[in-house]
Design goal:
With 508 residues, this protein is an alpha/beta fold. The chain has 18 helices and 16 strands. It has 3 domains: 207 residues, Aldehyde Dehydrogenase, Chain A, domain 1; 195 residues, 3-Layer(aba) Sandwich (Aldehyde Dehydrogenase, Chain A, domain 2), CATH 3.40.309.10; 46 residues, no CATH class. The structure holds nicotinamide-adenine-dinucleotide.
């Protein structure tokens, strides 16, 4: 029976101060270092089993806390997180294993290794749009890497006790992952307590504040920030499927996804039929909360986000855009924003420039491949994108030219569906990669190790420096970097001479 040290998890912000939580996490890191990756994987499997068996009650909690539809909660949060955890369990041992790497001929007789060591205490600062998925995927990756973890959920979707309940099924894991509730001020205090690395997921505005704060303390940070994702549709697509993809990409999670489609670029020759079909598909959407799994679009999670969306819509209308909405005029308290398609937009509109994060999408015609690449790349954001065309050569060409962290070809938001793929942005969408091999290694520091034998031999580059050695090193450079067949003969000759000279003392 395993005995785990440190198990006091902060139940709320009042029991333990941020400083104490970091200290507690540091202690649990020290005490729990002895546990192997095999033992850690076994703990994660318990978590998977708990979530699998309790998925309906977890879905209840998620829909209540966020207002999202049951299907969004079940698929994007629960299925998404289980997929990631399962992939981590199958791959963590290989990814974190010490690796032997090539040792060059000049270091003959040695062996070289890379160890992936945990940082210590990882601080996860989490947003409100996917509160379960983001918390668990990163926390468990960090735990598997050998770290202790502190999760600070968003103050808007704390779901008190849910994470602790999930973790309690796995005692070692529960002793390594600590949850502390609170707002941005608690987040700042946690940073002040100097965790060993911060993983921040949230808005670009907050991300910049955290980068400034952490830089003062020289704490490394990975930042997954906002987006204004484009979907690029060329004229040769299957219209019906592409319209269905665009609609889901724009409206899933009521548009509150960092990678949801906000700008729908359609090649001019199919713009009108595309828009007609899109509107028809919109009219079929079921908008609801408290559903049994049969509603398509849920509510906006916070009042302030609903206000931002409304501000973008009002600004667009004022500046001449055409808005097409479906659904009833809904009371402000329900936070149900009607799905909206916006056409006739221009660069001056907030809805084109800023992240809207709602069930609204701007449709914009374009003419050529060059034009669309230029348009997309002038955005300050670069999270993900999608390119739709039957001509795969063209789709790949465009996907390579886009300055984004991910591109789905002939599909939407799909890179996130494969746990083996890295996730993260460029430009103001952040840096660092979560998920996949890179995502797991991001929770580790690489340590370089080289092993030599115990012998009486001195290295050629050690003292004494002599004129003879100097000449031999010149010959060594010539031999090492020449491109012809004489290389190995020359190397053997000069290597032998250097070796002999190296064992001599000055004056020998
Ligand atoms: P936010 O930036 O307002 O808050 C995120 C977290 O940061 C919260 O837990 C908050 O309490 C905390 N926080 C706020 N100020 C802080 C400070 N000064 N120091 C430390 N912590 C602080 O973001 P949000 O509104 O919760 O989430 C929506 C945003 O997240 C959108 O912009 C969305 O695009 C982005 N997002 C990005 C990704 C991604 O992977 N790129 C994923 C999901 C969401």
């Amino acid at each position: 029976m395993l005995k785990y040290s440190s198990s006091t998890t902060a139940q709320d912000g009042t029991t333990l101060s941020p400083d104490q939580v970091i200290q507690q996490a540091r202690q649990s890191f020290q005490h729990n270092q002895i546990y192997s990756i095999k033992q850690r994987i076994a703990e994660v499997k318990r978590v998977i089993e708990y979530i699998r068996l309790n998925r309906e009650s977890i879905t209840d909690e998620l829909t209540q806390a966020t207002g999202k539809t049951r299907t969004d909660a079940l698929v994007s949060e629960i299925l998404g997180v289980l997929d990631n955890l399962h992939w981590n369990c199958s791959n963590a041992k290989r990814i974190f294993a010490e690796k032997k790497v090539h040792t060059p001929i000049t270091l003959l007789g040695k062996s070289s290794h890379i160890r992936h060591e945990p940082y210590g205490v990882i601080l996860l600062i989490v947003p409100w749009n996917y509160p379960l998925h983001i918390s668990l995927t990163f926390a468990i990756g960090a735990f598997l890497a050998g770290n202790s973890v502190i999760i600070k959920p968003s103050e808007h979707t704390p779901m008190p006790g849910l994470l602790e309940r999930i973790f309690s099924t796995a005692p070692l894991l529960a002793s390594c992952i600590h949850v502390i509730y609170g707002d941005g001020a608690i987040g700042q205090q946690l940073i002040d307590a100097r965790p060993d690395k911060i993983f921040f997921t949230g808005s670009t505005v907050t991300g910049k504040k955290i980068l400034r704060h952490a830089s003062e303390l020289v704490v490394p940070v990975d930042v997954e920030l906002g987006g204004k994702d484009p979907m690029i549709v060329f004229e040769d697509v299957n219209l019906q499927r592409t319209v269905a993809g665009a609609l889901w990409g724009a409206m899933t999670n009521a548009g509150q996804s960092c990678t949801s489609v906000e700008l729908l670029y359609i090649q001019r020759s199919i713009f009108t039929p595309f828009i007609t079909q899109f509107k028809q598909a919109m009219e079929q959407l079921v908008i609801n909360t408290g559903d049994q799994g049969n509603a398509d679009v849920g509510a906006i999670t916070t009042n302030f986000q609903a206000e931002i969306i409304q501000e973008h819509l009002d600004d667009a209308k004022r500046k001449g855009a055409t808005l097409f909405s479906v659904g009833q005029a809904i009371s402000a308290s329900s936070r149900l924003i009607p799905p909206t398609l916006i056409t006739d937009v221009n660069e001056d509109m907030l809805i084109v420039q800023e992240e809207t994060f709602g069930p609204v999408v701007c449709a914009i015609p374009f003419d050529s491949e060059d034009e669309i690449i230029r348009l997309v790349n002038q955005s300050p954001y670069g999270l993900s994108a999608s390119v739709w065309s039957k001509d795969l050569k063209r789709a790949k060409r465009v996907s390579h030219a886009l300055q984004t962290g991910a591109v789905s070809i002939n599909n939407v938001m799909l890179t996130e569906g494969n746990p083996a793929l890295p996730f993260g942005g460029v430009k103001e969408s952040g840096f660092g990669r979560g998920k996949g091999e890179e995502g797991l290694l991001a929770f580790t520091r690489s340590k370089a190790i080289i092993i030599d034998k115990q012998s009486g031999k001195k290295e050629p580059n050690w003292y004494p420096y002599t004129l003879k050695k100097y000449q031999l090193f010149g010959e060594l450079i010539d031999a090492l970097f020449r491109q012809d067949w004489l290389k190995y003969i020359k190397l053997a000759l000069v290597g032998g001479k250097l070796e002999k000279t190296s064992q001599q003392n000055r004056g020998d």
